[in-house]
User: Which sequence fits this backbone?
């Protein structure tokens, strides 16, 4: 297996572990880009999805927005924003956030809509105000699906943040892009392995969060 | 915006040529994904224990970034269209398998019993009862897979100009012609929206019993 040889060569070269182009630096940059983009996307997608889902209105509009968001090619948008706005974080954040909002928005809405209406009615009947119905009844039941939406958004962000390197920023994509230009295959494969590992780590983190936050009663059902 | 459709000669293609190439690179993988998903989904419906591990494997494959997937494949399939299409086909599984499984499972037990009572064997029951009833769910999955596939083809530009319309992005950079990037983004987005609309239309034709107003 020739790819494994490259991976081994990349990680055993000690020069890849230090300095501004070292693995720890690039990994940290990648984590920062991903977290920032996920925070913005969740900041937009979660409240809108929760409220529209709670009132059950605007589903068609949301589906339309989601389709439009998915239709915009992330990579093309990145290059376009880079040409228009120049070097910086903004050209990277715009495509990443546009990429991540649709899955969060649509799954949150669907999650809220799929909550069994009888406990919600019971909560209203007991005199709970709408905000408590939303946060104490609907949200805990909808949480597993909402988290799955956040998870797929996070994975897409982590893999897509790779292309930030094309517009001269850092992150793990640096190894892939530089390696391709330098015809340094070892570097390319090393970078690819790191991004894939980070995406898998994201899966793991979301699995752990789900174990911790989803109430056992909901998990059983 | 002069020269909006003026494609640089290094791409050795016309505007419509690029569109055709883009559609081929995006749609063939989804088709392949569908052909692979149908038997996998059927196995998952038959053997319930199989579904969680299959879901896990597709999710893990989906977690491999497109660029990383492309460059690893270069070693085997070179800087070609195939290298772009294989990952796209693999990604489509993560959407299509659950869509088909949910669709086929949503067929009511009475309907299946009625079909059996009418003398339909398992094969005819699958093709004439289960699959048609699952069409809305399958199309919903196909829509997500198709749109994201069309968007992802552009990344193929990075592995030796294999990104069809995405190749315009590189030319926009090296020739300082931003209108080419606008062209690439807009055309790709329009292709995705048109493909999505076509699939909605296909669903309407295939499921004449469904109410018309539900657009989702």
Assistant:
């Amino acid at each position: 297996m020739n790819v494994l040889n490259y991976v081994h060569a990349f990680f055993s070269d000690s020069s890849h572990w230090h300095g501004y182009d070292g693995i720890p630096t690039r990994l940290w940059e990648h984590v920062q880009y991903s977290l920032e983009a996920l925070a913005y996307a969740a900041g937009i997608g979660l409240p809108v999805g929760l409220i529209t889902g709670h009132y059950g209105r605007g589903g068609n509009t949301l589906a339309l927005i989601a389709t439009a968001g998915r239709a915009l090619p992330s990579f093309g948008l990145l290059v376009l924003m880079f040409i228009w706005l120049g070097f910086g974080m903004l050209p990277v954040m715009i495509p990443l956030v546009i990429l991540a909002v649709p899955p969060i928005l649509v799954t949150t809405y669907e999650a809220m809509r799929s909550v069994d209406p009888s406990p919600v009615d019971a909560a209203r009947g007991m005199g709970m105000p709408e905000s408590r119905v939303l946060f104490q009844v609907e949200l805990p039941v909808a949480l597993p699906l909402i988290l799955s939406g956040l998870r797929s958004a996070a994975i897409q962000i982590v893999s897509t943040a790779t292309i930030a390197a094309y517009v001269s920023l850092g992150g793990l994509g640096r190894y892939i892009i530089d390696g391709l230009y330098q015809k340094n295959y070892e570097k390319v494969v090393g970078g690819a392995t790191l991004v894939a590992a980070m995406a898998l780590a994201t899966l793991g983190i979301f699995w752990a969060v789900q174990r911790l936050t989803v109430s056992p009663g909901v998990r059983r059902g | 915006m002069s020269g909006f459709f003026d494609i640089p000669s290094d791409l050795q293609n016309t505007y419509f040529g690029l569109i055709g190439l883009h559609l081929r690179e995006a749609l063939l993988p989804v088709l392949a994904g569908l052909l692979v998903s149908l038997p996998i989904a059927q196995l998952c419906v038959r053997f319930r224990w199989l579904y969680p591990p299959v879901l896990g494997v597709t999710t893990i494959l989906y977690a491999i970034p497109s660029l990383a997937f492309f460059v690893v494949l270069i070693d085997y399939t070179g800087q070609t269209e195939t290298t772009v299409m294989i990952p796209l086909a693999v990604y489509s599984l993560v959407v299509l398998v659950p869509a088909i499984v949910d669709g086929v499972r949503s067929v009511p037990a009475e309907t299946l019993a009625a079909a059996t009572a009418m003398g339909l064997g398992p094969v005819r029951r699958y093709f004439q009862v289960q699959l048609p009833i699952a069409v809305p769910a399958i199309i919903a999955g196909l829509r997500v897979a198709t749109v994201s596939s069309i968007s992802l083809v552009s990344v193929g530009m990075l592995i030796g100009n294999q990104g069809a319309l995405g190749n315009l992005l590189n030319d926009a950079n090296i020739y300082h012609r931003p209108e080419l990037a606008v062209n690439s983004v807009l055309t790709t987005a329009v292709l995705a929206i048109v493909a999505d609309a076509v699939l909605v239309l296909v669903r309407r034709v295939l499921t004449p019993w469904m109410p018309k107003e539900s657009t989702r």
